[in-house]
């Protein structure tokens, strides 16, 4: 299999809004051809600012970005802000409400031949599952349908890079799943590199080829979804996924785990609840978060040691119940950088 080439490269992006406060701080990463790259982080970490810098809508204080090796010009260097090889879909969609879905999608290619416009329109209606809404106006559409129209319009003129700002934040879980699959299919079928920002770990894990974890304007880890989940670099990256067990070496002594000083992590599904056996530790169930297909139980081992455990949907544990907990076979506590 041939190695995919780099389409987008970011080299030392920096941007500050207030003196002494960096919104983006010497950010560097690259995106491969057809890759879906997620930037995750809490509100205010610099995700959206990064997209605006990448799209050429905002001027960086330092650093540059390159597409196909060509530097992306800032708004101070172009008559019109933006870049013709990079498309940005923002959270408000910016659709033309007085035009039909078809007119919205064809707008970026309005100067192309009528034949190509119709060909591209029909292709995008199919890819974005909008065949039944061709003649409908955006104001009559749901949020998920508007999102699909905005994406279809953004990729109408076949940009090699698509930027998405919190693309699923306003949608319910079922629609989020459909749109995640659609975006992934677009990246594969149209060979478009996708960069999207989100604070939702399900979005990042389910559709990304790689994830960049952002904190305070910096990238603290870039890795595959599996590596980010199983081997987070530090406590911030570990806690970005809910119900994470992060314990100190002192707390682990209550589990008879003797390790060097530091912080250690175990995901809830790495732990199991068992009847009393040798090597297990008695714990009391004190809280349950129920999600239908599974639940997460908080088990108290001691006053200073509580463990989250993933329970399958058939579990019938009751609050106050006492059992023993133990790490599953071939699993160890993962040491985090402090």
From TrEMBL:
Record domain ABC transporter: where: 8-241
Top-level division of the source organism's lineage: Bacteria
This protein is called ABC transporter ATP-binding protein
Q: Any keyword Transport?
A: yes
Q: Which SMART domains match?
A: AAA (SM00382)
Q: Which organism is it from?
A: Flammeovirga agarivorans
Keyword ATP-binding assigned: yes
One annotated GO molecular function: ATP hydrolysis activity
The alphabetized UniProt keywords are: ATP-binding, Nucleotide-binding, Transport
Any matching Pfam family:
ABC_tran
Q: Which PROSITE patterns match?
A: ABC_TRANSPORTER_1 (PS00211), ABC_TRANSPORTER_2 (PS50893)
